[in-house]
Amino acid sequence: MPVEKAEHVVQTLVEQISNEEIKLPEIQRGYVWKPTQVAKLIESLYRGYPTGSLLFWRTAEEPATRKIQTGVEPAKPAVQPLFLLDGQQRLTSLHRVLNDHPEAQIVFNVETEVFQNQSATTAKDPRWIKVYEVAGPDARHYPLVMRIHEAVPSLEPDLIAERLGHLAAIRNRAFHLEILTKFPYDEIAQIFVRVNSGRPLKTSDLALATLSARWTGTLQKLEDETDHWAKQYYQDLDVTFLTRALTGTVLGRGLSTWSHGRLIAASDGELEKGWATVQRGLRHLIPLLQENLRVSNSNLIPSHVALLPLIVLLGEHPDTGLDAETANGIIYWFLLANLRNRYSGSTDTRLGQDIPAARGPEPVKQLLSNLGVNGAHFEVTPQDLIGRTVGSPYFFLSFLVAKNAGARDWWYSTEISATAEAGQKLEYHHIHPQATLRNHRNDYSKTEINDLANLAFISAKANRKISDRSPGEYFVDPKPPLLTKEELAAHFVPYDESLRHADAYRDFLSARRVLLARAMTELLDRFRPAWMDETTVVSDPLAGCSLEFTLYQSSWGAGRIVVNARREDDEWSGTFGFADLESVIEAANGGLDSDLEIAGETVPMRTESDTVTIPIGPFLASGTIDAWRKTLEREKADAQPLSRCPVIEPRPWEGERILFPVTSIE
Question: Which of 4, 64, 425, 618 is the most interior residue, by most CB within 10 Å?
Fold first, then answer.
């Protein structure tokens, strides 16, 4: 095939665009990258990551072209131009950044080495500096070094100079070029379509494809294992999960964009050993959860990623038997890893810490140390439970304490079971029904109505029988089964008759939180290793925090989400477009970062593996793509008329943000 190969550095390519020595053929689409994607590209160049090759076409007969969206008027070319077939988004982005385009104000944090688009917060922080100031044509580093050091004395001038020099060097990073020659335009059009029509693969898809090509029979092994666990109600241990488990075992960390390169280099022996570890680890871990913790169904588990380090720990544990304290410690870490949302963001980084810890000489101690609770006592308080709903890991814990207390169904009088079917299938029931709380004169919020302290685990049939009746009615219904004081106590429902009416609903929540918090702490203490110090108490960093979405939508206008956030004593409200959020999540599903305008500020969405993190007010809302989609579907189902949407003045958040799991958004 007539193909020339070459290499050009970034600076040369940018100059070629300015001189119109690189042009876009008419078949190219427009420029679509968001600032976050541009920031990712600059970061990749800074860190020396692969950034892909560029595909060009050289022809004597110039085709119809479209303008590259650089914002500057190009000079007339002095040489025959090249026509860009693949790489428009990257080259346009680089040209914009290195020429100070107003829509490509990418900034660099000298302390943390993080990149993002300029915001109100970064503009006020001297640690953030524009990439253009460092890598642009007129950059002078010495004044920048002195300016940053004076503003942040803890940063040494040598370190600042080193990092700025490293950033400036992106101009000299080389791209590999393939140049097609002697092709007619119709064939070039076919090549262009084929190059650009592929669906971006998720990291798990790419890892599985690499494993399948690298190790014969991989998919069949994974599917057989999936079938085995599905029969035991652990259907979430699917092919995607097992791919993550195998790659984590082999690589010693989570999946990332570059995992496939390391998988290719793995030997058959390493892959076989890794798969043996996964199978052995699961066959030790799942019975431990089923029998000791009474987790009979995998759909109860908030984070399945938390299983991965334990699979390695037990899969590589010597065949010497597992003592009770180690078994309890494993369960204790598992519970706390879920409660502290260990893997709600930066999953790959956290697994890169926890999988090696699981292989160490004292794995349970090291895992707890990574979690920040080694040698401390974790106590659940009523305050921790405020604003928690079905997506919270405390909801999982509320089931476990009810199960361990022998809670029975309110119709069949059988112990609650996550594997029951038909009419006995487990559901969560609003003790105070939503119908009596909505539009109540006490103005209960959606988060209050759906608070986990208002939820009990009963069968589908019991739920239907109760319907919208108040507990003041159905608690004392003479028809069987009559709910006795003991039966309510097993569900940690206060027996005080004054709390059974909607007027006293907030007092009911407070009373039940006390009962639940005490039971949860007792359950945790049952598995807490004896060697842990009891004097230091660890609290939940999200205590007193809540994040609530309300969708306002109609057939004649674009839907908007109103956000109400609470962080301790601070409250914040803002709005953003519902369709914009949908677009951001779908972009993430295609492996692309994007941006979202919230409360008048453009904020960057970040994607790591299948985890999406979006800054929303005081929080970094983070979760899997599936979790975000479930949130969107729930909001669609609960949408209110757009005419009722309140007017909220834009107020960008200017303080630090803390991680908040999307599963806890109400």
Answer: 618
